[in-house]
Amino acid sequence: MAPRYAPNLRSRLPVVALLLEACFILLFAFFVDISEGIEDFPHIYAVFQDVHVMVFLGFGFMATFLVRYGFSSSGFSLLVAAMTVQWAILMHGFLLVPRGREMIAVNMQSLVFAEMYAASSLIAMGTMLGKINPVHLLIMALLEVTGFIVNQWLLQTLLRVQPLQSMMLLHIFGAFFGVMVSCVLYRKGIEPVHEKEKLHSKSGLFSMLGTLFLWIFWPSFNSAYLFSLHKINAQFKTVCSTYLSLAVSCVTATSISVLCSSKGKINLAHVQNCMLAGGVTVAVAISVIDQPWVAMTTGLSAALISTLSFRFIKRHMQMAFDCHDTCGVLSVHGIPGILGWCIHLIIQLTISDDFTVAVRFAVYHITILLTTVAMSLAMGTITGILLKWKIWRPPQNRKCFDDQAYWEVSSQLFCT
């Protein structure tokens, strides 16, 4: 007999989603306007398209590795990203854009920023993939974007952090936010590995396709903010550095995966996740990496640490801290992000001739990291507590990692 799944989403998802959309439409009607076109529209639109593909195609397909959760992984990623870009435009306009005019301007620059914020929410979503329903994911994503933009505002207002540096902390913020939500919402019954939490050859192939889209377009993602600031030379250096770092990461992740295997074989999960670590690390250290060998060394170090972390730390996080990270976000974004922050600090200290200035910068740099991590953990805790309310009807353990709880599948898909 077929299993009986949870009640339909009619009483929750449409109510929450359409209510949020109604609120957004009202806010856009009173506070948002489309700005006039710009001369370099074709060029910035090309950058926007690259970031657009990453967010809506790359992250969505990368999460389809779960054999019975492909519809949900791709569909919920689309739903979350589509909702968060709207909220991100509003939050960014209210807090981070100088209010020289009453209306928030929507242009290609603001759309690129909004999609970068959406990427941060999708990173956080990876920790909870398969364990919560789409209503949970929407609320989690909106709170993550809110927390990240507030963190940016605090860094830029109180610590005078450059906008580029505060934006590229999205990997660290999203990873630690998601990890904390996972800790708060942890429950027995899904350890050590859920019966449906497994990879199949076809699902692994689709997931690898998403990784390739991310890998190909990551240089555009890292340089998008610089292009919006019209820093063409810096953008060119960032593209080259990111490309070299990603190339080295791919080779290193494959090699370390073989070394970590008792049978001397390549683990697809290691490769498709950890080959992106170089791009993450370069993003956080984006303002100081300007030599090819530095970028390549960064990619090697990032892939090495990420692969070892994915192989050994992910399981121990679950056993030691009750943290079940479905996609290994901590290993792919969190730890490589911290590595990028360390590389930024080390390079700045080595080029400083004044010891006093170096010490002050170190204290300043450490303060930025601690503020970001503390803010992400605090927002993650608040979000986890909010999502614990029974009103959201979390799925039962046996219904985790399964599309049939939320989607019409098999023969139902073609029935009217």
Description of the molecule:
Residues 43-388 form the Ammonium transporter AmtB-like domain. Keywords: Membrane, Transmembrane, Transmembrane helix. It comes from Denticeps clupeoides (denticle herring). By secondary structure, the chain is mainly α. It has a single domain (14-33, 41-390), classed as Ammonium transporter fold, CATH 1.10.3430.10. 70% of the residues lie in helices and 1% in strands. It has helices spanning 13-31, 41-62, 70-95, 108-128, 134-158, 163-167, 170-184, 201-228, 232-260, 268-274, 277-284, 292-321, 329-350, 355-387; strands at residues 32-34, 104-106. Strands 1-2 form a two-stranded parallel ribbon. Helix 11 (277-284) packs across helix 12. Residues 1-5 have low confidence and may be disordered.
